[in-house]
Amino acid sequence: MTRIAVFGTGIMGAPIARNLAAAGHDVVVWNRSFDKAAALAGPGITPVRNARDAARGADAAILMVSTGAVCDALLFGDDGIAEALPRGSTVVVMSSIPVETARTEAARLADAGIDYVDAPVSGGERGAVAGTLTIMAGGTADVVAKVAEWLAPVGRVTHVGPVGSGQLAKLANQLIVGVTIGAVAEALLLVEAGGGDAEAVHRALQGGFADSTIWRQHGERMIRGDFQPGAHATVQLKDLDTSTGLAGSLGLELPFAGLARDLYAKMCEGPRAALDHSALYLELAERRNG
Question: Residue 285 belongs to what H/E stretch?
Answer without folding.
Answer: helix 280-289
